[in-house]
């Protein structure tokens, strides 16, 4: 795929992220990417494997799902209107297509550590899923206590060069391209740090649609080209979990850190979580990653 096409679609993806509660007309979005409306449809689907309308609808539904998970007092009617649905009934129908539950049912459900619901066993008693959820939560809190150093930090603004990747596998290829671009420019130094920004959550987004950015933290102004983009992590307060873990322990570390956030009364800010790496795990004799997880908070 033409690198210029990818660069322009990246600008569109960021614009959509920041304007999910605004009108996202075809004409406006086409102007952001410097496409004609006709060509935008074709290029967008070729890069994201979704039509523009399907992508916007999915992102809006996922945004409402995230809000329902973390803000139990939110009004479903207000939420549906905020994100562009003409009526509560149309919002409910669309939401149910994604999650198999109405927004009100989803709101009452437990966060997906495993899908918690009122399932009955053969003898008519609850099958212990709630107890399993509590047990898993306790186990993950204990995992965090034993394997992480957790702090609240005021983080400075970070400038990054990045390549976008969509899907659960293949992020290492994006990092390889980024490194190949950075080395001849003298941007990859001994103390340089790589990072990953998460635009989606595995709790509410299908793995093959999860969008992440492979990033290099910059300490100087840099000219970019092709599919390389520039982005910023704005300064702000974060929960920071420092880990030394294997690759198979990333998921439970993230889940445990979010549980720690809830248990300690913090509220996630409307900014994206990210990771910053302090080593190349491939060079570690035990394939251990030394990494900081960041959850922006209010």
Automatic annotation (TrEMBL):
Which superkingdom is the protein from?
Answer: Bacteria
UniProt entry keywords in alphabetical sequence: DNA-binding, Transcription, Transcription regulation
Recorded GO molecular functions are: DNA-binding transcription factor activity; sequence-specific DNA binding
Q: Which SUPFAM superfamilies match?
A: Homeodomain-like, Probable bacterial effector-binding domain
Domain (HTH araC/xylS-type): give its ranges: 10-109
Task: Indicate yes or no for the key word NADP.
Answer: no
Could you tell me which InterPro entries the record lists for this protein? Answer: AraC_E-bd, GyrI-like, Homeodomain-like_sf, HTH_AraC, HTH_AraC-typ_CS, Reg_factor_effector_dom_sf, SmbC-like, Tscrpt_reg_AraC-type_HTH
Q: Which Gene3D superfamilies match?
A: Homeodomain-like (1.10.10.60), Regulatory factor, effector binding domain (3.20.80.10)
- One Pfam annotation reads GyrI-like
Q: Which PANTHER family match?
A: TRANSCRIPTIONAL REGULATOR YGIV-RELATED (PTHR40055:SF1)
Query: Would you tell me the protein name for this molecule?
Result: AraC family transcriptional regulator
Which species is listed as the source? Flavobacterium nackdongense
